[in-house]
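G., the chain you wanted modeled:
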Amino acid sequence: MLTQDVIGVILRRRWLTARRRAAKARLVTPRFAPRSPLERLRAGTGSQLLEFALGLPFLVVMVVGVIDFGEAYNLKQKLNNAAREGARIAASSPTADLNCGGCGTTPNSVTAIRDAVANYLTNANVSYCTIGTSATYAAANQTWTYPLSGSGCSGGSLTIERGYLFNSGSAPVSASQVSLNYPYTWTFGRVIALLVGSSGPTSITISSNAVMQNL
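Predicted structure as tokens:
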């Protein structure tokens, strides 16, 4: 017959064995049981993911917009430089061949100006629109206009005015003016269309002109 002391020892050993097994189970079993997607959203990590998903489209539009406006500004500076290059060539070119604007051929001095502008744009990697080789003549200010050709380039032009006049004090001054109208296609407009389903701004025409006194 078991005494009370023996029974106590047996019960204590069983309690210690159960405790050891429970400790081992805690080491093997993950601390947190898998949670449902709804519980994850209610947790802090889930709310951060939701906030990131909601803010990501606006961040993409902002980044693309900054890059797009930077590209447009860069194009504007290149057009300014190309117009100045054309005006510099025009101001130093002879005017003897300008009196036959209605002859059906473009004067060599005007063609040289067109070539200078076209070469500058090509060297500046602005070449998705091509300046045409045939110009339209207008007697006012002895003006020749070259259209631009290429995909999305309709409406663009290079205009050369060899008889441009501006006032310096009270006397008019003979000068040459070179004007460029060049299209630019927005990228962030397509990004907006992907996000909201309606098209954003597609393109604009960037204009630049330069005037120099004829020598």
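Residues 44-91 form the longest helix (48 residues).

Shout if anything looks off.
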